[in-house]
Amino acid sequence: MANENLKKALEKAMIPEYDELLLRNEKHVFSVEFERKIQKLIKRRNKPYYKIINTVGKRVACIVVIVLLASSVTVLSVDALRNTVADFFVSTYEKFSSVQPVEDDIAPSTIKDIYEITYDLKEYEIYYEDNTEYRRNITYIKDDILINFSQYTKDAYDINVNTEGYEITTIDINNYEAVYFLDNHNYNHLIFDNGAYIIYINSNISKNALINIAESVKKIE
Amino acid sequence: MIYLYLSALETEDDKIQFEDIYNRYKQQMYSIAYSILNNEADSEDAVHQAFLSLAYNFNKVKTIPCHKLRSYIVIVIRNTSINIYNHNKHSAEKSAELDDNISIDIDFFENIDLNELAEKISNLPPIYKDILYMHYYNGYTQKEISAMLDISYENVRKRMERAKKLLKTELEKED
Amino acid sequence: MYKRIISLLCAFTIIGSFNVTDCSTAAVVQPVAPAYSYTSNCTSTLLLSGSTLTCDSYIEGYYNITDKIVVYQYLQRKNASNEWVTIYSWYNVINNHIGSVINYRYSVASGSYRLKTTFDVYSGTNYETITKYSKTKTI
Fold it and tell me: Which residues pair with A151 in a beta bridge?
């Protein structure tokens, strides 16, 4: 399908260039050998098209075509195991899981209330911060310890998480049922739906410390 | 290759038309080749190869409208000269930074300012802008381009993708 | 020789053929992913507001392990034959273990859209490729 803008731009850019190149006319005297080769090309005796078809090749080609037509296009993949875990749809694959909240038409589509960790993190610095209308991410760091905190609108939350080798379970966080798992880098992950937003915290601190931090998440102001 | 066939200048009309093209364009073609190769013998080789290519593809060439034939001639001699140049220098076509398997959809260029897009096209290396011109302006298929420029189908595909990638990269530099 | 060729071809068919991504109208089945060695979690989000599409891709690697992430975003629309076609694409490099890429398309035509994001997640010269599709949004 033609892209009209690209076509016009090509015309604008290239036609003058080609015209300009054809203005060159150096009046070269071609060698005798060259003229002879060209005349030979022009005066070559008439030959009809002829095809040299390698018989074996043609048969193999036919077989390949038949095979390809016969074979269906299938997806070489592993079907997910899909479960409802807490307030989430969790599809588990070999190396990762995808997590989506259940449909909620009345949840806010933009972040109207800010939630934050109120646990004392004064020894931590903010390593990364990223805020939009639908997603807030803050990463705290102390030496090699990281705490990754996220607040998402439900509409914007659809995540792949590394669950390779580990199982997803649930934990109670302030009467919310949170999805919990440990990953293969020793990070603990907690995801819960607080009614309006999805809160997701992961960290390489201990599981109990992470639970305390998760329980400290409150609406600010 | 399973099929091998030769196309020649079959009729008297073909021969006359071909000779006419030869007489009209040989000097300009030589000039273009020389500007790339800086060598008389190589430049004559390039012109000869270009005319061989025109002869082999003459069934297609003779249907090209006159005003488009000019650009076609330039593209063939330019690409032939660059091929010879690279062959002499034993240098392969440089790869773009990105993986060749990723295809850029041309709708990317849909809303770009026309003048800016034209300018960036002009700045592309000749082999890339020529291939974009042949496919997206003239509407030649990749198979046709492969025959016209005497390069493999795979090379045509790769050049096309690299051309789009380079163009996209140049446009994004301004963002 | 023929028998050998034919039996090889038959074996090939039985094993199965390759995933043709983006041409299926069935629910997206995630392919068998490479190991999540350098990737902790990622999102590929498509949001619609009026006729503006927001393409948001976020990724967390592992601190001290992941050092670069190349993010490819492909905005896809369903065509008349119900196939997903990339209509726009972006490419960004994150020189960190964590980051996001956000791009917009304004005044989009009606249709069904999704965002495909491919992350090349690096640790030194090694990298793994993670692909994530967003939910479908219809205008």
Answer: A136, A199
Fold (CATH) for C39-138: Immunoglobulin-like (2.60.40)
CA-to-CA separations, A134 to A140, A172, C137, in angstroms, rounded: 20, 25, 16
Instruction: Determine which of C1, C15, C45, C135 to mutate to test the interface with A (most A C-beta atoms within 10 Å).
Output: C45
pLDDT averaged over chain A? 84
The residue ranges of chain C whose pLDDT is under 50 are: 10-33
Tell me the β-bridge partners of C58.
Answer: C43, C100
- Rounded Cα distance, C120 and A202, in Å: 22
Domains in chain B: ranges and CATH: 2-92 (1.10.1740), 103-174 (1.10.10.10)
The beta-carbon neighbor of A183 closest among C30, C31, C40 is C40
pLDDT at A181: 94
CATH assignment at residue A159: 3.40.1000
Give the pTM. 0.51
Q: CA–CA separation, B5 vs A50, rounded Å?
A: 5
What local confidence, expressed as pLDDT, does residue A57 receive? Answer: 53
Mention every residue, 6+ apart, whose C-beta is less than 8 A from residue C38: C61, C62, C65, C66, C121, C122, C123, C126, C127, C128
Structural domain containing residue A51: 46-75
Among A170-179, A199-208, B61-70, C51-60, the minimum mean pLDDT is found in B61-70
Q: How far is A46 from chain C (nearest CA, A)?
A: 38
CA–CA dist A213, A150 (Å, integer): 13
Residues in chain C with CB shorter than 8 Å from the CB of A146 are 63
